[in-house]
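Database export, one record per block. Field names are fixed; values are copied verbatim from the stored entry.
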Amino acid sequence: MSRGGAGDREAVGIAETAPHRADDVPRRGGRAARGSIALALVLAISLGGVAGAQVGSSPGPERAFGRIQRPLGAEPTLRPTRRAGAAGPVVTSSRAVRPSLLVHVPGPMRVTARPGGGGVVGNLPPTSRYYHTPLVAWVLHTADHGRFGLVTLPYSGTRRTGWISLDGLRRSRTPIRVWVDLSRHELVVRRLGREILHAPAATGAPDSPTPIGRYFVTDRVPFPKGSAYGTFAFGLSGIQVHLPPGWTGGDQLAIHGTNDPGSIGTSASAGCVRVSEAVLARLRPLLRLGTPVVVRP
């Protein structure tokens, strides 16, 4: 299986500002000014092998992000990002949202229980596990005036976090964050808290549910048209620990396309998030390495 080209796999830096908390859940609200002129105030708060090929299909061709199978079908229509009848942009909150802090990992790093100390709880690898892409990690919080950063543990199968030293690490920022709502089978993209994409998605089947948690993009991998993963996959830092019985494909979580568009909007995968080709085209310029992806119930 061919890996993504250099352009697809390199990290893209974003102008720096201060980091923000990763576990803030966006909320919608707003207020109108009295009088003849209504003022819409927009404020915001932001907060592989792959396990997501079709459940029940032949496992062999789906190893390591999958291979060509059936022709790609028609794609569902994207949902609008604004509620019907809304007079202005969607209002999400009363606090400004800052870009997420990303760090480029130059080599293996110890992850500790406390900033600058405590027991070692894991390691941050310099590359992704399956495609060996240089790792760009999402920093959830910082401590000690930005000297230490809280990160999730990639490929651990847990939601555990720990601290790394940020001294000397190359930093970048992204205003983009992805939210996956499992109960609604929806994928939402927000830029600085403001919704810019809202689309249906397939999620894990009942016996292989998509694990909730905080992840980040580790790989950007193109595929030939007709692949079980559509034409593109965004490998994530998480793994599926509840694979379907008899599954012999990979365990990396991902957001990818599908050659079974009828499954979109249902619980059908081995754990990955499936979207249409139209959505993939929208995601490709937005989801750089390190982009946060939050999966919630």
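Remark 1: The radius of gyration is 19 Å.
Remark 2: Residues 181 and 225 are 27 Å apart (CA to CA).
End of record.
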